[in-house]
Amino acid sequence: VAGTCKKMKFRPCIDLHSGQVKQIVGSTLTDDSSSSEKTTESELETNFATNKPASEYAEMYMRDGLTGGHVIMLGGGNTDAAKSALAAYPQGLQVGGGVNDTNAKDWIDAGASHVIVTSFVFRDGKVDMDRLSNLVSLVGKDRLVLDLSCRRHKNDPTGPYYVVTDRWQKYTDVAVNCETLQMLGGYCDEFLVHGVENEGKRCGILEDLVELLGKDSPISVTYAGGVKSLGDLEKVKLLGNGKVDLTIGSALDCFGGDVSYDEVVKWHTKENRK
Length: 274
Description:
16 strands, alpha/beta, globular, three-stranded antiparallel beta sheet, eleven-stranded mixed beta sheet, 24% strand
């Protein structure tokens, strides 16, 4: 019944890298702490970078009545920029990237509506239930978003999607399927799912993943990755049965793409007025 009254939403984003608002190709991010290898600026495929502060994007989203967007910190040096966005739009944005049990409460106190967590709750390829339960007791289930960003194994292009952590480089043993979504849905308010292979590439959405999320997620879920046109909003609405919200990044004109941000907002407003 819950699914029938839910209106699909456009969820905005602010991706931060080295303190700057950027849109990058997710699969080119690496940061292997076990070696000294980190992605150099030349290896990192950047679609867009701007000196416009994160707070300006936050103000724009607030002006347009967009809720549930996310601020993602890709690596270090982003704390101040993230806090400025939260200060500009208190309770209007979620924050993720390096969130754990030592700082989750601080981010809520700084004005985040939710904290987004991935790597911290996955250890040795599995969900660390102690860490997850601890986070729930710290901030509350209704303030927690689990990031189940996922990709297929390269040698199994039609196989299951597996949750990936640590800048989307490390595969877990956790498949994104009905069982996983039902189990983890009891510990958080929403899921955020990046279709990693298509993220930042403007090559179209992962239709089978959107369909799976719409069918099997017991809670709100936002999909991101590969949007290339305004038509993808209707496509996600159809495939996700109206239950899957959509984030658009690199394709938007405010991030250097050719999909009109204003048109997307118009679609969202009309959809949510019904």
